[in-house]
C-alpha cells in the first residue's frame, strides 16, 4: 500500500471513529449528564459544579438596572446557576406593571409587538424575561426556570390543556438560548397536580430536547418520589427545607430526615436508573427556623455551609444556596414581605454565606471529578449523629471528610491509592488550606481540627496521594 492510500485509509477510519459523533447542540456551553450518571458536564466534557442561588422573584421584582447588578454580583461570587420563577402568581405583573398572561390564562401569554425598553407599549413581561436571561448569558450564568409556581396548580389555576400550550410557548421561545435549565414544579408534591406536571415535563422535552429538566419539590421531599422513571426528568432534586429537627412536620412522609439533608442525597444515590441529584433548596441564610414565626432563631452562614458540604460529600453534583431577602428581592417599600426579612436584597447579597459558597466549588473542581464517590467507611469507629456526623467522599487519589463541630475524629487510611498521603485542613469560611503533614497510607489515624469544638467550627480534612 502506497503512502497516499495509507493516508486516505487513516482519514476514513478517523471519520467513522470521531466524525460521526454528535456534537452537543450548544457546543461547549451545553450541559449534559456525565457518562456514569452522577454528575453534570459541559459540552467539552469538563466538570460542571452547579453552584446555584435562589433568585426566585428576579423577573418580577427587579428592573433592568437592578437585575444587572444582582447577576454581576452572583457571577463575581462564583455562582453559575440562578433559580427563578417565570410565573410566581397567575396572573402576575413585573416591576413595570406588565401583565404576564391574558385573563389569568397561562395558555395566553400577553405579548406586544416589538421590544423597545424605552417604549412601555413595546416592552412586555416576556421582553423583560428575555432581557434578564440574555444578561445572564453575557455573564456566563445559567437560568434554571420554574414555568409556574406549584401553588397555582394546586389552586386549580392551571389545567392540563393550558399547561400544554404554555409549555410549548416557553420551549419554543427559549429552546435556542444556551443558558436554560427547566425546573418543573415549584415547592409542590408531584402528586398535587400530577397531570399538569407530567404534561409540562413531556411538552418541554418534546419541544426542547437540548436543555436539562428536573422537578423542584416541596420541602422535605424529593423529585425522585414521583419522577425517577420519567424520561423527561434528567436529574433529581430535593428540597431539604427550612425546619429544625424538632420542627419537622413530615413524619407521615416517605422520607423523614429532619435537617440531615445528606440522607436525601444518599437515598437518591441508591436509586435506579442512576441520575445526578442535588439539594435545590436547603434552609436559607437569615430565614426564621420553621419559616413562619419570625421570633424564632435564624439560620446562619454556618448552617448553609453545613448543608452544602453534607450534601455534596454524600454524592450531590452541586448545591443551591439561598438568602431570605435575596430570594424575594426584598425592598423596604414592600408592604407584605414573607418570613420577616431584615436587610434589603441589595445589602443581603453580601451576606457571609453568599461569599463562602464559592469555596465549596473551589474545593471540588481541582480534584479528579468523575471518579468521586461517597464513602462513609473512611470514618473509623462509631460516627456521630445530627451535627456530630462526619461526612466523607473520595476519588482514587484523594479523600475529603467534613466535620461541622470540629471535634476529633478518626480516619481509616488506605482507601485511596498511594503508599503515603499528605494531609491538610481546608477552612470552609475562608477557603484557606493549612498543611498538617505526611503519613503512611494505612491503619487508623485520629485528627484534631483547629479551634475548640463548637457548632460552626467546621473543617474539611483533605488527604491526597503523594
UniProtKB/TrEMBL annotation:
Keyword Magnesium annotated: no
MF annotations from Gene Ontology: hydrolase activity
Keywords: Hydrolase
Keyword Membrane (UniProt): no
Domain Apiosidase-like catalytic residues, every copy: 34-370
Domain called Putative collagen-binding: residue spans: 373-464
InterPro entries: Apiosidase-like_cat_dom, Collagen-bd_put, GH
PANTHER family, alphabetized: ENDOGLUCANASE, LMO1036 PROTEIN
Protein name (database record): Glycoside hydrolase
